[in-house]
Recover the amino acids of this structure.
């Protein structure tokens, strides 16, 4: 390829640190009969310590009780894991009592019902919650909160006030950043699906690698220091993988999208460091945290040290700016089991609850950890991104202790042609939009 | 442990504290170790002990005080509302629930002239205010009738009386009554049997002293008496086999569960009360006012319903036996009838138990205290109705026997009558409808026991009656099931594990209450009792015929008729031809099929043709009486009945009343707004319907109270005629010749319905034609026989007689549901796979109209089965173990398995009464089916291959072919022998003999070639990505299943922070859960080979 410009842009560089991912990695852990109770137990234990420390300033005059210690009519603070009892929640057992009803009872995308109610549980017991201070529409199973209220005669706990853990503390953001440096976030390439347009992705790759546009544009491209692909990079027909040996024709259809992806990644990795996270449709395991896509899938790109196959969720530091993100499953699940005006509200909530995926393991598949809950958010990221959303959206969230977080919904690239660029200097972000449509006049 | 300590001892009688302070407070103060006194540290220990004693003293006293307080607050919470002071000045009104009779000294005040023993009726009930009532009714005497021999006059009667009295004295030597036969009166009555022209005959009403004497007197009269002037004579007795209580109710116009009033001044209160009821009084039977269940009196009194469940700690390998195993927990819920939430929720536990929110946990140190606390609860709460699941057969007898084993004399005083001990006796119940059932009868006087398992058994046909599957069926929730071997472990743990058990026990006590509410049992049963007039307790304990008999007696009494005592002629009368079924023209109908139904066919026939005992003309009379032909009907079966113009039958009258009452109830139901009122009315209309239909059965029950096959065979013969006639009329009228578009065709007809294909392909057109046909044909029948058009099936799959499936339409816009009959989706000895496959196929064929799709689905499932990809839980077959293996004459799969399991591990092997789940495995050639059964868990653990051919041939093929044969050519070849059946995969068992010698070697993931290291062989290297994708997607699938299954189990058990313990083998996901866990481990291991 010929370089025809006078000036050679030098790509900027940032220090990358991915140690954050360690907690999402599952090594040597096996399914040996462990159950999900442990993960809840750890979650409750850690969150309770935290909430207990907040309780004296929140409600100084109130005693702190366990569910068992409740006494009728006595006001107190209790801490526990919420459980949302949902009428419409799909249940494995339904498969066994299938009587097809004439009209489907449930909208497939949301299982909310006005009768849903919340229950608070700690290791000693559970109590039904009443009162309007705690809306069942907002909360989901698995969130740990502190509640102020009292037990009623009916044996329910009447909630007067709710305390969430709130934003976690944040590492200090470097202030000496002078230059604009961009991180490109994208998701939902869906190579192999009908909606994916190969040219669109090629344009993006060319842009990143500086093969596109005039000098100014190339100058911008040179400021891209890192690329993150947040899940669902490929898509292939599930029915091909049913345990039977494939005909050679099918072998290629199976492999084709991955090969294509590998070629593209190869191009990116040659110029800039790239992280790839697995998503729901990728050839990775199902349960969160999803483990890195196997390197054997990327014979072309994996030799580059700029290419990293990462976990989902994924967290890393870039020039001491902390990123945390998922391929979107956690937010999609919240969307099914709770309500919010915008997807960013869900994202914000998870941060306030200090938990990436409260619905795991309840409705979101999850590895049965025995000693930890990797989804607890102990430090507040500077950039918190979620992949595979319908549309692009972002919000700057300010915490009570001066935390500053950029929340980003990354749209599906194959549907929108949009990637997101975040400026490390000031956390501003904008979209990179690519279209292959020729205006049909 | 901050909630009121855990040990609630009853306060000791004196102030001196007990010597040993052993309190099971979880983090308790070091307990003085009595057992270690022989140690050398005795001195040190002693000092310490003293301190502990001192410390303990204060603690003890305050605890005792608290105990007393608690007891008092508990008692006040449990007790019934206090009696209003004015009650003695009012008339007493109450709803009675239980009626029985006793024999006691007759009441001197009410019956001044009498002396000696007399029968006394006891009615137990509740007032509107919720006060319990016991009413003693005096003066009602047992009696029966005989026909007066011709020529016997008043003088002869006193002679007859003397002879009878003498004979009675001979055969009842022990009775302490001054006079056996109280009175013999001449009355004018008529026998219900056969049409008679004369108005009445003379009967003798014989009144005896005690109810038991009716039978002995009847015996004497049956055998015959020597009477001067008449010679040796035997007598046909009338109404001599009627239960005394029922006799009383009939004569006083009392029906089960109605309101009774005793006016002011008509009742007496004794100084010494005999019962624990709040109100107790005595009255004469003639002073009772019985209110019909209308208006204010149709309501229900606030009955107290106690739902309870016990847990016992069985020994390993044995089902709990009262002789050995302690009762460790009793959970109780008390609910006021009509309210949503229980007002008492408690659990009594042996040894400490951590508190439970909203539940009063009462812990005791000894079993004796637990049992006595329960007795106190019964005494204080004073429940009217005791419910539970299998309480009659298990819980109640267990408690009684356990108390007897422990020698707790004061325990079995659970009834409402003072000093009356509860007894348990074995009982068998047999009825034609139910078959023979063995049970135990525990009489708790004044309290109505309602065992949900009996009621559900009676009213619903289910594949399993375990509480788990019953609640899954009706409440659609699975119940956590703790195996009884775990129960003992939980009990021997700490306060927390016992709490776990208590929560489980409470749930078992709560479910019967929820079932009771959901199925409206109280309303339905009370209404049934009111409609049929029998006490409520009869409804569960006795068959159908007593209900009809009660109605018949009431009606006969009004008409001055008497019922002869049926000779137990047994099979002599033989059988008669039953209902007709028109030949089914099997096939798959893709045009709407209209269904014409006769509404209440048999009752209508009896009404239309005036069929009754009293309208039947004997063949002899037909010749003799010379009745004008316009006044008689000859039925198709050849019997003669007179028409209404000569004599109206009382069966038709009863039926008419029942059906009009039902119409009224249904109309009221539409009007009703109050949900409780609705419940009552709906229960009533249902009861009325069932009662109307059981009248026919009563006449046909050859071993029943009053069989009359002339009636029942006439009914069925008319039924047959009507079906035939309908078919003819439809096929004659709806023809192209008659101006219709197509020729109508009757494709099938059952007892009371006819299926017609009018040929039109539009649902609405078929409905219109159906309506027209119904109207046209109804016009040709005698009222009230009526043909109704209600529904259309479209499409309709007619498999054969009594077996069909179709989509049911009652309006032309949208079908209502899929209706199937006789298609074995619920048979017990089928595995779930069959049910799912049949349901899915029917859905595809009928709803989606996709026959190829249905066939494809079947093929895929069969292929999955052969390839060993079917979820094991779908293959599990379950059978109840009724006796041990040796006792089975024919070797059975489950019996053999139980034996084998016992040899492996006696602790977890199924016992008699358990349900044994098994799968059929591959075994040596020629092995018998019963040798091939295996425990599903064992199969999972050892990778034992199942036998797909067994499932294919013995389980799936028949039901599937039945469905597919009408819709698919060569169904058998296509579905069961296609190319999809060629590839087979069988797992290698890990425990079979030869595998012990096998060496495991690494093989290529791609082609299974042995390799020395790595993942793939050289030739598969190029397919690395593809093979990895396959492997990882397998893991992904399993992970998803794993997550869903285990979280579901967490949900069922109702706790996120505790491990799932449930081992319910009735639960469909139990094996799947086990398998998911195992598969997951294997798959991950496989996947880990890729990481290099």
């Amino acid at each position: 390829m010929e370089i025809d410009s006078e000036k050679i842009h030098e790509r900027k560089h940032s220090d990358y640190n991915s140690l954050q991912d360690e907690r999402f990695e599952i090594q040597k852990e096996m399914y040996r009969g462990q159950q999900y109770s442990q993960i809840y137990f750890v979650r409750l234990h850690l969150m309770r310590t935290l909430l207990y420390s907040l309780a004296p300033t929140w409600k100084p005059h109130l005693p702190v009780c366990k569910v068992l210690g409740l006494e009728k009519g006595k006001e107190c603070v209790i801490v526990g894991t919420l459980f949302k009892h949902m009428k419409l929640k799909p249940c494995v057992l339904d498969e066994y009592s299938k009587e097809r009803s004439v009209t489907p009872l449930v909208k497939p995308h949301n299982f909310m019902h006005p009768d849903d109610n919340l229950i608070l549980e700690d290791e000693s017991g559970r109590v039904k919650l009443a009162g309007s201070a705690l809306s069942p529409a907002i909360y989901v199973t698995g969130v740990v909160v502190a509640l102020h209220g009292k037990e009623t005669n009916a044996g329910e706990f009447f909630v007067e006030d709710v305390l969430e853990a709130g934003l976690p503390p944040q590492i200090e953001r470097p202030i000496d950043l002078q230059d604009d440096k961009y991180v490109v976030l994208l998701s939902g390439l869906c190579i192999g699906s009908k909606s994916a347009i190969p040219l669109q992705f090629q344009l993006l790759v060319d842009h990143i690698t500086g093969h596109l546009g005039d000098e100014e544009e190339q100058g911008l491209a040179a400021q891209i220091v890192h690329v993150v692909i947040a899940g669902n990079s490929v898509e292939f027909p599930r029915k091909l993988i049913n345990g039977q040996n494939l005909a050679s024709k099918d072998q290629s259809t199976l492999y084709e999208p991955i090969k294509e992806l590998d070629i593209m990644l190869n191009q990116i990795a040659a110029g800039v460091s790239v992280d790839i996270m697995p998503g729901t449709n990728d050839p990775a395991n199902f349960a969160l945290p999803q483990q890195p896509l196997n390197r054997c899938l990327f014979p072309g790109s994996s030799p580059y040290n700029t290419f990293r196959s990462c976990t989902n969720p994924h967290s890393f530091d870039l020039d001491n700016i902390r990123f945390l993100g998922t391929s979107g499953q956690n937010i999609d699940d919240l969307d099914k089991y709770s309500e919010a005006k915008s997807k960013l509200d869900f994202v914000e909530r998870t941060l306030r609850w200090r938990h990436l995926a409260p619905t795991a393991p309840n409705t979101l598949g999850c590895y049965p950890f025995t000693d930890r809950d990797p989804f607890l958010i102990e430090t507040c990221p500077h950039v918190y991104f979620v992949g595979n959303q319908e549309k692009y959206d972002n919000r700057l969230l300010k915490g009570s202790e001066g935390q500053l977080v950029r929340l980003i919904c990354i749209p599906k690239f194959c549907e929108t042609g949009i990637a997101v660029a975040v400026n490390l200097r000031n956390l501003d972000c904008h979209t990179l939009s690519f279209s292959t449509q020729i205006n049909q006049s | 442990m901050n909630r009121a300590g855990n040990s609630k001892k009853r306060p000791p009688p004196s102030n001196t504290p007990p010597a040993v302070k052993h309190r099971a407070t979880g983090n308790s103060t070091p307990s003085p170790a009595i057992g270690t006194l022989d140690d050398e540290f005795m001195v040190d220990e002693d000092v310490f002990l003293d301190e502990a004693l001192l410390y303990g003293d204060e603690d003890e006293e305050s605890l005792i005080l608290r105990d007393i307080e608690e007891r008092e607050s508990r008692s006040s919470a449990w007790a019934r509302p206090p009696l209003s002071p004015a009650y003695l000045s009012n008339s007493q009104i109450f709803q009675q629930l239980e009626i029985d009779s006793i024999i006691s000294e007759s009441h001197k005040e009410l019956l001044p002239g009498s002396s000696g023993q007399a029968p006394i009726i006891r009615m137990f009930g509740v007032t509107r205010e919720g006060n319990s009532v016991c009413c003693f009714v005096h003066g009602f005497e047992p009696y029966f009738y005989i026909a007066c021999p011709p020529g016997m006059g008043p003088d002869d009667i006193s002679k007859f009386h003397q002879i009878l009295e003498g004979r009675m004295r001979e055969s009842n030597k022990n009775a302490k009554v001054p006079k056996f036969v109280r009175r013999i009166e001449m009355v004018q009555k008529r026998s219900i049997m056969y049409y008679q022209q004369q108005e009445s005959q003379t009967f003798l009403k014989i009144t005896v002293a005690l109810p038991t004497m009716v039978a002995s007197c009847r015996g004497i009269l049956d055998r015959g008496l020597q009477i001067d002037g008449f010679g040796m004579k035997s007598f046909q007795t009338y109404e001599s086999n009627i239960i005394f209580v029922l006799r009383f109710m009939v004569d006083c116009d009392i029906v089960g569960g109605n309101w009774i009033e005793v006016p002011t001044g008509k009742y007496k209160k004794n100084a010494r009360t005999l019962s624990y009821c709040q109100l107790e009084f005595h009255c004469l039977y003639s002073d009772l006012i019985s209110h019909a269940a209308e208006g204010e009196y149709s309501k229900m009194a606030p009955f107290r319903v106690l739902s309870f469940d016990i847990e016992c700690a069985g020994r390993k390998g044995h089902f709990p036996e009262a002789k050995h195993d302690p009762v460790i927990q009793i959970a109780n819920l008390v609910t006021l009838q009509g309210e949503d939430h229980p007002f008492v929720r408690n659990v009594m536990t042996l040894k400490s138990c951590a508190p439970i929110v909203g539940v009063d946990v009462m812990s005791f140190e000894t079993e004796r205290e637990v049992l006595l606390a329960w007795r106190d609860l019964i005494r204080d709460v004073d429940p009217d109705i005791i419910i539970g699941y299998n309480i009659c057969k298990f819980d109640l007898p267990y408690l009684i026997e356990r108390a007897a084993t422990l020698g707790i004399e004061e325990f079995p005083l659970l009834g409402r009558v003072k000093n009356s001990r509860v007894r348990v006796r074995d009982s068998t119940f047999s009825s034609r409808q139910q078959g023979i059932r063995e049970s135990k009868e525990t009489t708790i006087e004044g309290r109505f026991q309602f065992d949900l398992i009996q009621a559900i058994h009676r009213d619903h046909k289910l594949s399993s009656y375990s509480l788990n599957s019953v609640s899954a069926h009706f409440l659609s929730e699975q119940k956590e099931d703790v195996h009884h071997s775990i129960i003992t472990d939980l009990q021997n743990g700490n306060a927390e594990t016992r709490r776990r058990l208590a929560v489980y026990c409470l749930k078992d006590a709560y479910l019967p209450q929820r079932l009771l509410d959901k199925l409206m049992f109280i309303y339905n049963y009370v209404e049934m009792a009111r409609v049929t007039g029998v006490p409520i307790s009869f409804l569960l304990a006795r068959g159908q015929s007593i209900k009809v008999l009660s109605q018949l007696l009431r009606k006969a009494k009004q008409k001055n008729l008497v019922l002869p005592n049926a000779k137990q002629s047994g099979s002599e009368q033989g059988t008669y031809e039953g209902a007709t079924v028109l030949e089914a023209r099997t096939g798959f109908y893709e045009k709407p099929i209209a269904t014409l139904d006769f509404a209440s066919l048999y009752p209508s026939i009896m009404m239309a043709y005036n069929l009754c005992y009293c309208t039947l003309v004997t063949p002899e009379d037909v010749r003799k009486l010379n009745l004008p032909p316009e006044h008689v009907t000859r039925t198709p079966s050849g019997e003669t009945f007179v028409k209404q113009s000569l004599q109206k039958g009382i069966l038709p009258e009863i039926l008419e009343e029942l059906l009009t009452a039902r119409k009224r109830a249904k109309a009221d139901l539409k009007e009703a707004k109050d949900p409780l009122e609705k419940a009552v009315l709906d229960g009533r209309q249902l009861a009325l319907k069932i009662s109307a239909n059981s009248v026919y059965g009563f006449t046909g029950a050859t071993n029943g109270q009053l069989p009359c096959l002339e009636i029942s065979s006439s009914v069925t013969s008319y039924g047959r005629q009507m079906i035939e006639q309908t078919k003819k009329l439809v096929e004659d009228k709806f023809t192209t010749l008659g101006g219709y578009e197509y020729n109508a065709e009757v494709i099938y007809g059952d007892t009371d319905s006819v299926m017609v294909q009018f040929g039109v392909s539009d649902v609405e057109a078929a409905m219109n034609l159906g309506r027209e046909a119904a109207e046209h044909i109804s016009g040709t029948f005698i009222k009230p026989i009526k043909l109704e058009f209600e529904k259309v099936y479209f499409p309709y799959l007619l498999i054969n007689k009594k077996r069909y499936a179709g989509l049911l339409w009652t309006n032309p816009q949208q079908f209502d549901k899929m209706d199937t009959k006789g298609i074995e989706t619920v048979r017990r000895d089928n595995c779930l796979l069959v049910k799912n496959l049949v349901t899915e196929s029917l859905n595809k064929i009928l709803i989606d109209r996709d026959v190829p799709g249905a066939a494809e689905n079947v093929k895929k499932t069969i292929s999955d089965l052969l390839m060993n990809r079917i979820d094991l839980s779908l293959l599990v077959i379950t059978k109840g173990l009724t006796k041990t293996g040796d006792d089975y004459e024919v070797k059975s799969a489950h019996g053999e398995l139980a034996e084998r399991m016992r040899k492996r591990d006696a602790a977890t092997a199924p016992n008699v009464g358990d349900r044994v789940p098994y799968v059929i495995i591959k075994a040596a050639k020629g092995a018998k089916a019963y040798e091939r059964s295996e425990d599903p868990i064992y199969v999972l653990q050892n990778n034992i291959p199942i036998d797909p051919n067994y499932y294919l041939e013995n389980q799936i093929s028949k039901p599937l072919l039945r469905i597919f044969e009408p819709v698919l050519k060569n169904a058998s070849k296509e579905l069961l022998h296609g190319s999809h059946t060629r590839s087979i995969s069988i797992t290698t068992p890990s425990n079979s003999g030869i595998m012990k010698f096998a060496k495991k070697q690494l093989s290529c993931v791609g082609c299974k070639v042995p390799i020395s290291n790595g993942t793939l062989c050289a030739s598969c290297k190029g397919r690395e990505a593809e093979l990895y994708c396959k492997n990882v997607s397998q893991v992904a699938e399993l992970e998803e299943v794993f997550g869903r299954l285990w979280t579901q189990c967490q949900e069922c058990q109702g706790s996120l922070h505790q491990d799932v313990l449930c081992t319910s083998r009735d639960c469909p996901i139990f094996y799947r859960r086990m398998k998911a866990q195992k598969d997951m481990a294997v798959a991950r291991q496989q996947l880990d080979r890729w990481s290099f």
Helices of chain A lie at 37-58, 198-209, 215-222, 248-271, 329-337, 343-352, 413-416. Chain A has seven helices and 18 strands. Chain A has two domains: 16-29+170-433, 59-91+111-163. Residues 107 and 167 of chain A are 33 Å apart (CA to CA).
